[in-house]
Amino acid sequence: MEGVLNWQDDTKGIEAARKKSTAHTPDDIEATSPLPLSPLMDSNLQAARNRYKTCKPEPSGEPSEFQKKLWKNPYAQALATPVRSCTLTGVRLPSSFLLDFGLTPHPTTGKPWQLPKLLVDSNINDTRKTSNSSGHLEQGMPPSVEDDPGAESPSRKPVRTVAGSYIIAQRPAVKLLSNLKQKTYMQMIPQRWKQDGRFKAEEIVWRQDMDNFVLELMRRKTVKLLKYLSSQPAAYIVACEGYEDIQNKHQLGAVLWLGEPDNDQRSTSSEESPPPYAMMEYRSSGPIPLYNLPALLGLDYLHQLRDSGQSFNRALAVIKQKRNTTHTQLQLWELMGYMAHNVAAG
Q1: Would you say 335 and 328 are in contact if contact means Cβ atoms under 8 Å apart?
Q2: Using CA atoms, how far apart are residues 33 and 178, in angstroms rounded to an integer?
Q3: 3-state DSSP call for residue 282?
Q4: What whole-number distance in Å separates Cα of residue 93 and Cα of residue 202?
Q5: How far apart are CA 72 and CA 68, in angstroms?
Q6: Considering only CA atoms, which of 193, 205, 194, 173 is closest in space to residue 90?
Q7: pLDDT tens digits, one per residue of 130-155
Q8: 3-state secondary structure of 261
Q9: CA 341, CA 346: separation in Å to the nearest integer?
């Protein structure tokens, strides 16, 4: 009995404490201090969250003069490319100054070949076998690019890796990779490639002549762009009589030195040929690059340019500073950077 009475006393105490508490009924709360609105029902909060999920609207109105200058400036466009890290040196640079490498299967052996993205999206038409099938270095002629680098192979498409591998766009650096030992080369393979189940990392092949192979691809792309510009009616590339005639041209972005048409054999070693990264003062606009095409492209591609049109039949030509010429100017600058250490020798 005594326990029951104690329990009743405790119950009465709890009820008394509830009556004395400062808690309010729902009606009292609504009248005095309303509850905060749920985030699921807050339209302002939802709009703030979804603001970063919607596509950014296209810029309206006319672009400013500064924006127009940026669009026509190949060096500003190069610096605006995403920053990536070089696998060989660890240096972080805009991707325009790096070579992007991917993996693609050899059409005969099926082994993954590490090749520049200049070729990964191109047609693969060379099925000649290589003599050495072991190790990561092979000398043969694996996948090569067709005359139309934009065409894709209907029979075999390139392997799409999880992420690319970037190497600084300089010929000595690419040549150094060809001399690495198997163990050192394996350490430079991205971890994502090793975890990709479509191929084995130890079977990845690197061409011994990769520096020459990349040079050939860059030269071919440069010549294709120059031919395209010279074929346009807008006169993006104009031949000049001499250095004095250059000052009479308007809106120039770069100067092309082709050498005398009858002396192509001596153009690459002539004392008059421009050195690497040569610049020329142009009116009040400041210096513009002067490219030595015999050294950059080689005599075979130089002859192709001369035969393509009247724009390349003189010793000098100029490229206009237009938005449509930005990509070509950037490609010339990248080719110069790749060959800078041996451009005098062609």
Answers
A1: no
A2: 74
A3: strand
A4: 28
A5: 6
A6: 173
A7: 333 333 444 333 333 333 333 333 33
A8: helix
A9: 10
